[in-house]
């Protein structure tokens, strides 16, 4: 029997997930929580095999929770279930120790299959193009990524230069190089591309 913990802050969504998974052969929802604090409080007691986590939780988000759960239940494997289809989130989820990353648009059959696969030691990322993109290597140098990240936060060239103790010209050159490497039409386009691929 696969023991599942469902962590989702939206009551109606959580209730639907519980009903769906409890109806699956060989699966039992042994706990449900609305936030990370509640989940951590019960995880050690119920010892789930798989934790199904929403990323966008109040307080500690699902990614942070994925990193904390192994300290309470070392054998528990994590599946992220989210509406966020950005590669950066996939990378962060994997780095946090998640074995699965699923969009909320998947079917109930696909969800059950993913929980079984992860419970058996596998890794599931759907849709597969997110997995492919998460494996891509960034064309940006660490310094180019750094200035692009600061630009994405709203800092202008002068503020970035001051923050990094560099000249304005050096910052402009790095931003220009980043735009060129990403084949972007503008700085805004470069930021969008880099964020989409999880490179900043």
TrEMBL record:
Signal peptide: none
Parts of the chain that traverse the membrane: none
UniProt keyword terms in alphabetical order: DNA-binding, Phosphoprotein
4-aspartylphosphate modification, residue list: 54
GO molecular function: DNA binding
Protein name: Two-component system response regulator
InterPro entries: CheY-like_superfamily, NreC/VraR/RcsB-like_REC, Sig_transdc_resp-reg_C-effctor, Sig_transdc_resp-reg_receiver, Tscrpt_reg_LuxR_C, WalR-like
Single GO biological process annotation from the record: phosphorelay signal transduction system
Organism: Streptomyces regalis
Lineage: superkingdom: Bacteria
Residue ranges of every copy of the HTH luxR-type domain listed in the record: 133-198
PANTHER family from the UniProt entry: TRANSCRIPTIONAL REGULATORY PROTEIN DESR (PTHR43214:SF42), TWO-COMPONENT RESPONSE REGULATOR (PTHR43214)
Start and end residues of each Response regulatory domain: 3-119
Gene3D superfamilies per record: 3.40.50.2300
Pfam families tied to this protein: GerE, Response_reg
């Amino acid at each position: 029997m696969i023991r599942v913990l469902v962590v989702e802050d939206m009551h109606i969504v959580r209730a639907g997930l519980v009903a769906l998974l409890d109806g699956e052969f060989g699966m039992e929802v042994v706990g449900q929580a609305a936030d990370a604090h509640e989940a951590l409080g019960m995880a050690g007691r119920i010892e789930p095999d798989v934790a199904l986590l929403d990323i966008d939780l109040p307080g500690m988000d699902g990614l942070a929770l994925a990193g904390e759960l192994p300290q309470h239940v070392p054998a528990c494997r994590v599946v992220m279930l989210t509406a966020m289809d950005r590669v950066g989130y996939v990378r962060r989820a994997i780095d946090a120790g998640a074995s699965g990353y699923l969009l909320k648009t998947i079917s109930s059959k696909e969800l059950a299959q993913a929980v079984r696969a992860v419970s058996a030691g596998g890794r599931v990322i759907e849709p597969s193009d997110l997995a492919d993109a998460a494996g891509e290597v960034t064309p940006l140098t660490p310094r180019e990524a750094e200035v692009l990240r600061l630009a994405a936060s709203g800092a202008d060239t002068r503020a970035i230069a001051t923050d990094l103790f560099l000249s304005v010209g050096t910052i402009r050159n790095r931003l220009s190089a980043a735009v060129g490497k990403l084949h972007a039409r503008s700085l805004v386009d470069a930021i969008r591309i880099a964020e989409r691929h999880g490179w900043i």
